[in-house]
Prior knowledge:
16 helices; mainly alpha
Amino acid sequence: MTAGSNHQLRRLAVLIAISLVDMIGFAIVLPLLPFYALRLRATPSEIGLIIAAFSIAQILSAPVWGRVSDRYGRRPALLIGLLASACAYIVFGLADSIWLLLVSRLVQGAGGGTTGVAQAYVADTIEPSQRAKALGWLSAATGAAFAIGPLIGSLAAHFGQTAPGFIAAGLCVINAACAWKWLPESKRKEGSGAVAVLRKPVWHTAAQVVVHPARPTSRLILIYGVGMLAYSVLTSVLALYLGAEFGTNEHTIGKWFFYIGTIQVVMRVALLGPIVDRIGEAWAMRTGTAILVFGLLLFPVPNSALLLALIVPCVPIGTALLFPSTTALISRHVSRSEYGTTMGVAQTFAGLARIMGPMLATAAFQRLGHPAPFFIAGGIVALVGLLAFQVEVEPPTVKAVPAPAPESPA
Length: 410
């Protein structure tokens, strides 16, 4: 392994560690939110709006964060996002009304617009052939956080509502300090041609996705957004569904998120790389889409927690294949100077899905019955997922014939 590769891995390791701690804070409060809102007499539809508020703020801020990171660097954008999240968790801990829960989600969403910036950081530092693996490792931080965070939140909930929010805020402050000390800037200085690209209107790339949906980048962004719609349906009604069907509460919800998060980690750290090497990014995306549809449609079928535990893995397995592969394919179709903006636009469409998903899911849960959100999401992903089969298939990685001197990784 070369010195350059070691340097790339060190920077990626720091980014993954920072993303892990950031998402632990997010995962501490998210599973508890529906239970706290119900205690404040919120309806399922109102809970959906509170959950969606995060993405309403994120969708407005993500392209701006991408543009800021393209101009001024990834590091400042990530630091500001971490501090915004800390403020949001303090508000969550002090919330004694529905509107304060709403405010906490809005502030947190504004800071969460930097997700595309973290993906652009990976694109800056990792060569194209290794980006799907690297993005998988980055997204594995999300899976690990959703395994660890809810357990911390469920434990902290025994000490009152303020404890989970304050713990999450403290983690964010410590995380920002660590990022300030150890996370270097990844953005390279570009020539005048790149500056001209950056002077396009912020929403130019987003508009191109709608105006030209058949373009490869547009198609991939739409696939990414629909996959996020399905995942947001699950996360927004999971606590409500488990509470209504199996008596789960804020003290026991952590076990389910730990189960889902553990599967995500195993998939994205241990299995994603070999799968992508074997079948390629496009087929990994297609396979993930099919598994996700299967899991959503079967989710409401089991009538016992044990049987449900056999169906649940389909969702994290499907998204573990879908999201990193799609993001890696997107990065292949844009210039380096537009990484931040394009990843920000992808997060904008994902944000639209996270706005529609919770509101659609909770409204269907309240008005059409508990299984309805999963059937609706599965049907939508099945229809739009057909786009995945129109993406050009890149050739799988070809294994070299054994030679006297082993080759370095591609």
